[in-house]
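Example record used in the benchmark description.
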Amino acid sequence: MSSVLQAPRSDAHAAIAAVRRAVAEVIRGKDDVIDLALVAMVSAGHLLIEDIPGVGKSTLARTLAQVVGGEFRRIQFTSDLLPSDLVGVSILRPNLDRAEFRPGPLFANFVLADEINRAPPRTQSALLEAMGERTISVDGTSHALAVPFMVIATQNPTEHYGTYPLPESQRDRFTFRLEMGYAAADVEASLLGGAEAPGAPQPACTLDAIIAAQHAATEVFVHPDLAAYAQRIIHATRSHPGIRLGVSTRGGIAWVRAARARAWMDRRAQLSIDDLQDLAVPALAHRLIASAASDEGVALGAERIREVIATTAVPR
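Model output (structure tokens):
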């Protein structure tokens, strides 16, 4: 067994706490957003941040990579971006009588897919295998990605000029969808007053500590009654009259995995119903498709999830 898997739980907890403090020094007044980002990371998931430009989406992704000490790559999604610009290409070398693979920017620990919905769906879909399987296939050859691997995508609201909707299969691969929101009044006033932005943070832990935390989170116990409750929630989204496409099995697994990560971060060995309910909206709302086209939108999806939570019997 590797030393990573043998890392003491206390060390992994201390590492996550150090990462939270370091990120909070840069992303001020956004503790709830930071906590969700850390839950996504500890659950080995991906994060979709949808908000207007200029509220710190890219800064959050970059800061998280810096304090963890992982390799960071930023990809600016544009209308002319090609799938090969993400995954890499094979170049024929006549003198070597073979093709040489040149990896793309997805071969990093943390990948910022900036303004992901400004690229056409074909390019967006190049992320599917990477996010789901942690591999890239080029010319029939599979290439393993870095460990850990996390995609943090930023997205402009869909009514903004020059945006494309994300394919349903791609939205389903994001553990959470969240919003940054404007800075708190005191933070914004400080910035407007000329306060210097903090410099690049120093690494607060190692990648091995993050991997240890991810392994430890999978050991959190899920009582069969809570697993059945989660399944009832998922089933209810599929039969709701206002929902045309409910939560997939993959989405349900990601939700429970995130809830286990949250329980572990709170130093609890067993999942609670609060873990599931508190994470239901960020984990499930973006996966829904409304029955009527005029009703599309994550805000409505959040409302539907809250309805389902409120009307589904809880374990006794």
